[in-house]
Amino acid sequence: MRQAAIVLLCALALAACGDAPAPKATPATAFKSAAVEIREVDLAYSAEAVIEAVRQSTVSAQISGRIVELRFDVGDYVKKGEVIMRIDERAASQAVAASEAQVREADAAARNARVQFERSRQLLAQKFISQAALDKAEADNKQAQARLSAMLAGAGQAATERSFATIVAPYSGVVAARHVELGEMAVPGKPLMTGFDPSTLRAVANVPQAQVAAIQASGRARIEVPSLGRWIEVRQVTVVPSADPRTHTTRVRLELPEDARGVYPGVFARAHFAIGRAPRLLAPREAVFQRSEVTAVYVVDDKGAERLRPQLRQIRLGTAGDERAVEVLAGLKPGERVALEPVKAGMSAGR
User: Fold this and answer.
1) 300 pLDDT tier (thresholds 50, 70, 90)
2) 10 Å Cβ neighbour count for 231?
3) Average pLDDT score, the chain
4) What's 264's DSSP letter?
5) Is 297 within 8 Å of 310 (Cβ atoms)?
6) How large is the C-alpha radius of gyration of the chain?
7) Contact 287, 343 (CB under 8 A)
8) Are 201 and 56 contacting, i.e. CB atoms less than 8 angstroms apart?
9) What is the pTM of this model?
């Protein structure tokens, strides 16, 4: 009986083990995907461009003197009318003081000449002096008044030159370069600071003359800044009415909006001029990656992230598209889904 009970217990334990659920398979790494689709987009002509400032200037010294104060440096934002540096104005102040003293002297002489002229007129009326004496008094009066006017002009010039010792910003902008150091000697014409207005930027591109007519007819364009990964809508497209006889190209200016932050003069850009619209097969840009000289995507099935092994597919890209999608010429079909996270998809494909 005892042995039969042991056998029965072993049989029950084996039956319980047979009914236990099997362990679930570990799910694959999840990643996002999107469908490749045909969509109507702008046909664009692309050209290399460079960003430049419409308002950019270099402030130079107008008087001689030692630089005694520097208030801003490269990268600082300066408001219109703010003082950016000062030049020693002691010599200019002495010149102003001398001019003011000369003005006071000339004013006293002019007052005396006017009084003498009025007295001479009264004496001539009483027949005490000749007409010649009156004429001389009148000439002396005019000479004194002219000298006073000259002294006033000289004083004004001296005051103006003293004001040149304080360098102010002609407009609001960003300091792009500082050409002097504290304590250096400034002389007339020496560059001091260079600045530009970041709200008045434009891109300049040279395009073939054969594309000018289409660009003028459309009047629409976008700017791509590869270093920032940004696309910027253009406010206005202006074709410069002249051509380069050597390269047979025409310069086109593209005005950027005032809120184009992070863009500075000299930055490389690409100008995409809209010259028409047509349907194109588009794939998300974030799904496309480069491996050496191969351009490829990872294709997944209709279940998206549930596919265990995404398929690496080489593709050929076109020129149409925008900041979110790019034209696909070969390698994909409409409706196929591609992984938006190629790194994760590659890890899943390698398992």
Assistant:
1) confident
2) 14
3) 82
4) -
5) no
6) 41
7) no
8) no
9) 0.61
